[in-house]
């Protein structure tokens, strides 16, 4: 295989594209020249294998062996790859190893399992418990898909038996969902001995005899629950032969087809007959609400339509990765993003196998820790957690970076004031740790109770195996597991052998200690038992395998429990400052110091120098630009308090009705308005669009919080109250007093908020790692949680803006800078910053890929208002300086008094500011060099200075 030498392994920068029917391969192909001009080295694509029709995100893959036809054809894909190659750009693919989209009628693996149960060739592909405690579900799949109770659906004729004469097969249909009938039970439909057949055929008619023989043959197929491997092969071969024979009979003789149709009609006319047929199938159709308690296949979180894959099995890995690996082998993919790594049975083992397979097909060397291509994993790391270096990847997708950068622009001194304001306004004193604990228990006892029960039953079997532990009852073990999981401090541990990492020991012991403290159990020694199990300390050597198997399943469970409890519940309940409520964030940490930011980057250089950096992603709850504006509130807590209570009084004067929006949700609403308020004037049409965006976000937030409504039990009355409140607040005619007051307050914050956004963008583009731009975020994007952040991007406008900027740079840079500063609302200023910095990264790839990171010292009265560091290698020295906590700075005229930046004594003396093109020189002071901050920010709000220590010259670098 010939690899393109000019496509880098480590990207300079990536650009995330969200593919779906509204954004296709062809559209992406047309975008490549623009992305190249912007300074992007790799397109970073959302999943593009065949997904459920209409999917807006691509994570519900139904076929791992083909492209998504809604995104484009194979030719369209080839054109995209070719265009990327022409621009020396690579492609990073987002793959989904953990789960597949099921239900519907388009996942052939799943349909085969429904048809054949344990005898299916794909029975082991999905993570199914074929032997649950509930006996009626033995060797059956519970399918919680019905909109009402099963019996009611039968009576209402909601389920329909269908015969596909061309395929010779029967299926039950429920709306768009298809449930194949087990061929071994076809005789329940075919009725080959029925007297009506003799009315159509003579008893000696060869066609009748063939039909009766075929009926008998179906009935003699091996039972799906008792088939040996050889019998399973026979069954899977023979059933297809018999189906083709049935199809041929129907094709050759209309009377046979008419008779079968009459049999099907009779079953459909009788709820009892349909029920009897369904009772003989490999599945049990059920009301969707029973999923939480009884579902017996692992899901992606609590989504019934996404079933977990057993990718740890070699045959499953090969089948689900065959196509992606072939694309890598053909050099059509140069990198991978691994979705939901924590959902895997053994993430480290999976990553090792993946790297070995890629190394084999690319003939490249893999030493167990260095991936042969660029690979990052979606993994949430707590602020007290480190990603283990035994993961053979380049790092995470960057949630932790987004949170620490955001924290730099939060004034930590305002924490106590914000706590008081929030508690007073909401009328509650919330402890976030307690909210997370209770939210996790709520998730475990409702939507994820079935998985909890499976774990408890498995733990009970382990306890029963030894005399010292068999007295622990199932209920005691269930309750103890509940407490341990609810107290778990990280998403999961990564134990796959008796050798347990020190960090994992610490997390387990913390969870056990907290669970013991919280538990009301009479016999708390049960926690000692669980402690030994989780640390693989068996009572006897032969029990070690059972303990490892249990721990791996336990680890698969704590991750989604944390995600649903922390991310998707508690973060929507605790609204003290919502910029802290991001994926991987911790609202208890009210901002980060500049020193913490430097320490984080220094550690990254040592451990994960090529991990991804992001500020906004498709998973963000609030986009980076939204957070940047809201963070300004922490600089003026008194004004915020006055404003928010004043708005409450204004907006509740006219509220009528028994149900009103909660104070907590109202507090969230005002923050959202400040973060997303359009920068340009709103006419009635654009105001209506904006109002609907905010309404959709608020309803989603309310349901995620699960306090007054939820996805499981929507409260229409409360949700209507929320909608009415939003409509009232955003009605220019009925509520002009509030809107005028709000607009005046937002105007005070706007400039500082936009400066924050520019500053954090420069930090992302120059810190150690690989920066990723989420589509459209090179200009202002005040987007909220999906689907809001998947709205179409006006790329034509952005391309035109970049062209005009480049022309203006070539013509009169000074005039351009004045224009950018005078009209920041149009987004050109962010696009200018992004393009200039990315192009510099491309020209100085070695510096930003492997260069050192130096924390720089600030002296003077404004030292707390700056973040400064340097990137250096033998050839180049770059200085990055951005302001922070800018509201009062801007009010004072952005003056820097005697604030100075110290450089090492051996640093270069002469620099060029890549934004302003100004030449600057550092002054020698004692044992170091100094730059005057005032000179850095004369014409642009952030600074990136470059100098040469080698062959390049300051006048040419970065142009």
Brief write-up:
47% of the residues lie in helices and 13% in strands. By secondary structure, it is an alpha/beta fold.
Topology:
Layout (H helix, E strand, L loop, with lengths): L13 E4 L7 H14 L3 E4 L3 E3 L9 E7 L6 H13 L3 E6 L3 E3 L6 H9 L24 E6 L3 H6 L4 E5 L4 E6 L2 E4 L6 H4 L4 H6 L5 H14 L9 H24 L1 H15 L2 H9 L3 E5 L3 H4 L4 E2 L2 E6 L5 H16 L5 E4 L8 H16 L11 E4 L21 H10 L6 H12 L5 H14 L3 H16 L9 H13 L15 H17 L7 H9 L9 H30 L20 H14 L4 E2 L10 H7 L6 H16 L10 H14 L7 H22 L10 H14 L6 H31 L3 E5 L20 H28 L5 H16 L1 H6 L1 E4 L1 E3 L6 E7 L3 E8 L3 H5 L8 E4 L6 E4 L5 E3 L1 E3 L2 E5 H4 L6 E6 L11
Parallel strand pairs: 1-2, 1-17, 2-5, 5-14, 7-11, 14-15, 16-17
Antiparallel strand pairs: 3-4, 6-13, 8-9, 9-10, 12-13, 18-20, 19-22, 20-21, 21-27, 22-26, 23-24, 23-27, 25-26
Helix pairs in contact: 1-2, 7-8, 8-9, 12-13, 14-22, 15-24, 16-18, 16-21, 17-18, 17-21, 18-19, 19-20, 21-26, 23-25, 23-28, 24-28, 26-27, 28-30, 29-30
């Amino acid at each position: 295989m010939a690899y393109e030498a000019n496509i880098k392994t480590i990207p300079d920068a990536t650009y995330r594209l969200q593919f779906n029917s509204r954004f296709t391969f062809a559209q992406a192909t047309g975008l490549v020249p623009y992305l190249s001009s912007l300074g992007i080295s790799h397109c970073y694509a959302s999943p593009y294998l065949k997904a459920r029709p209409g999917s807006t995100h691509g994570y519900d893959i139904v076929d791992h062996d083909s492209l998504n036809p809604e995104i484009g054809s194979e030719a369209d894909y080839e054109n995209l790859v070719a265009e990327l190659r022409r621009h020396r750009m690579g492609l990073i693919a987002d793959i989904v190893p953990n789960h597949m989209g099921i239900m519907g009628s388009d996942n052939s693996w799943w349909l085969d399992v429904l048809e054949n149960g344990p005898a299916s060739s794909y029975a082991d592909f999905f993570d199914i418990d074929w032997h649950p405690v509930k006996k009626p579900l033995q060797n059956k799949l519970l399918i919680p898909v019905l909109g009402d109770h099963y019996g009611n659906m039968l009576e209402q004729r909601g389920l329909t038996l269908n015969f596909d004469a061309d395929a010779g097969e029967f299926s039950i249909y429920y709306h768009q969902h298809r449930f194949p009938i087990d061929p071994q039970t076809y005789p329940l439909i075919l009725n080959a001995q029925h007297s009506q057949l003799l009315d159509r055929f003579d008893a000696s008619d060869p066609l009748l005899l063939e039909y009766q023989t075929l009926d008998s043959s179906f009935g003699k197929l091996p039972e799906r629950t008792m088939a040996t491997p050889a019998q399973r092969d026979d069954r899977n071969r023979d059933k297809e032969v018999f189906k083709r024979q049935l199809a041929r009979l129907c094709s050759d003789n209309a009377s046979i087809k008419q008779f079968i149709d009459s049999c099907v009609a009779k079953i459909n006319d009788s709820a009892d007959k349909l029920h009897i047929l369904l009772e003989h199938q490999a599945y049990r159709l059920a009301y969707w609400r029973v999923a939480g308690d009884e579902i017996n296949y692992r899901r992606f979180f609590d989504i019934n339509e996404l079933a977990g894959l057993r990718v740890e099995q070699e045959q499953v890995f090969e089948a689900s990765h065959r196509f992606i690996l072939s694309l890598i082998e053909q050099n059509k993919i140069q990198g991978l993003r691994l979705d939901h790594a924590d959902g895997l049975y053994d993430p480290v083992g999976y990553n090792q196998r993946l790297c070995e397979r890629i190394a084999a097909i690319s003939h490249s060397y893999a030493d167990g820790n260095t991936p042969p291509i660029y690979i990052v994993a979606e993994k949430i790391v707590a602020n007290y957690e480190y990603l283990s270096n035994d993961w053979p990847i380049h790092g995470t997708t960057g949630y932790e970076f987004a949170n620490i950068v955001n924290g730099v622009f939060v004034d930590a001194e305002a924490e106590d004031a914000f706590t008081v304001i929030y508690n007073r306004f909401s009328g509650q004193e919330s402890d976030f740790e307690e909210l997370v604990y209770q939210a996790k228990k709520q998730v475990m006892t409702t939507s994820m109770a079935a998985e909890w029960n499976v774990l408890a039953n498995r733990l009970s079997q382990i306890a029963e195996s030894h005399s010292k532990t068999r007295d622990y009852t199932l209920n005691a073990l269930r309750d103890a597991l509940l407490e341990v999981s609810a107290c778990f401090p990280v998403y999961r541990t990564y134990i796959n052998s008796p050798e347990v990492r020190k960090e994992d020991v610490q997390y387990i012991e913390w969870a056990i200690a907290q669970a013991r403290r919280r538990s009301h159990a009479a016999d708390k020694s049960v926690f000692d038992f669980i402690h030994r199990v989780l640390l693989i300390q068996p009572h006897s050597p032969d029990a070690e395998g059972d303990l490892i198997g249990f721990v791996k399943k336990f680890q698969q469970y704590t991750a989604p429990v944390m995600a649903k409890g922390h991310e998707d519940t508690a973060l929507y309940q605790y609204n003290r400052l919502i910029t802290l409520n991001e994926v991987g964030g911790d609202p208890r940490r009210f901002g980060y110091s500049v020193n913490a930011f430097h320490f984080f980057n220094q550690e990254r250089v040592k451990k994960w120098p090529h991990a991804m950096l992001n500020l906004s992603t498709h998973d963000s709850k609030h986009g980076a630009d939204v957070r940047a504006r809201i963070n300004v509130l922490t600089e003026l807590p008194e004004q915020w308090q006055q404003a928010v209570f004043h708005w409450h009084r204004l907006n509740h004067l006219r509220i009528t009705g028994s149900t009103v929006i909660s104070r907590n949700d109202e507090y969230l609403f005002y923050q959202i308005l400040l973060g997303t308020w359009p920068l340009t004037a709103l006419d009635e049409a654009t105001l209506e669009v904006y109002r609907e965006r905010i309404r959709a976000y608020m309803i989603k937030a309310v349901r995620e919080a699960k306090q007054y409504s939820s996805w499981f039990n929507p409260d229409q009355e409360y949700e209507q109250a929320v909608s009415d409140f939003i409509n009232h607040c955003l009605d220019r005619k009925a509520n002009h007093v509030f809107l005028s007051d709000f607009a005046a307050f937002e105007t005070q914050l706007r400039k500082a908020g936009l400066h924050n956004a520019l500053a954090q963008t420069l930090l992302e583009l120059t810190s150690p790692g690989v920066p990723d731009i989420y589509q459209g975020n090179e200009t202002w994007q005040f987007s909220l949680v999906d689907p809001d952040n998947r709205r179409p991007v006006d790329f034509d406008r952005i391309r035109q803006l970049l062209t005009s900027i480049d022309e203006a740079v070539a013509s009169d840079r000074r005039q351009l800078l004045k224009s950018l500063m005078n009209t920041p609302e149009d987004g050109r200023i962010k696009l200018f910053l992004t393009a200039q910095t990315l192009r510099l990264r491309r020209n100085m790839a070695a510096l930003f890929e492997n260069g050192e990171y130096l924390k720089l010292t600030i002296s003077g009265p404004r030292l707390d208002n700056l973040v400064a560091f340097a990137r250096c290698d033998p050839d180049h020295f770059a200085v990055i300086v951005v302001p922070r906590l800018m509201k009062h700075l801007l009010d004072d005229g952005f003056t820097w008094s005697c604030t100075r930046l110290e450089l090492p004594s051996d640093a270069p003396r002469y620099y060029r500011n890549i934004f302003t093109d100004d030449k600057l020189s550092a002054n020698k002071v004692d044992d170091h060099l100094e730059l005057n901050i005032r000179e850095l920010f004369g014409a642009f709000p952030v600074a990136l200075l470059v100098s040469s220590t080698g062959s390049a010259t300051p006048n040419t670098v970065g142009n």
